[in-house]
Write a structure and sequence with these properties.
- With 89 residues, this protein is an alpha+beta fold.
- Strands 1-2 form a two-stranded antiparallel sheet.
- The protein is globular and about 40 Å long.
Length: 89
């Protein structure tokens, strides 16, 4: 049994892993959800029925993805291309 707080999201691990790889050295945290601030705001560009247009915080993002593994299991994610900004923030 996996005691990770993210065990329920294992079906999406390839997605989370490739995002983490792209952010390597830029963010803290071992898992995708660790890198999301509690007060983060997400605004979704595309509008789908039943999908929120905006949510706030790590908890809401986790709730959004909670049942995803019931319908889909990702087996791989590849082809990562990272285009880092050359202009300091």
């Amino acid at each position: 049994m996996n005691d990770s707080p993210y065990a329920a999201f294992a079906a999406l691990d390839p997605f989370f892993d490739i995002v983490q790889k792209g952010l390597e050295g830029l963010v803290d945290g071992q898992h995708f959800f660790d890198t999301v601030a509690d007060e983060a705001i997400f605004e979704f560009r595309y509008h789908f029925p039943g999908w929120p247009q905006k949510l706030g915080g790590r908890g809401d993002l986790m709730a959004l993805y909670a049942g995803y593994g019931d319908n889909i299991i990702l087996h791989d994610a590849d082809g990562l291309i990272v285009h880092p900004c050359q202009i300091p923030a």
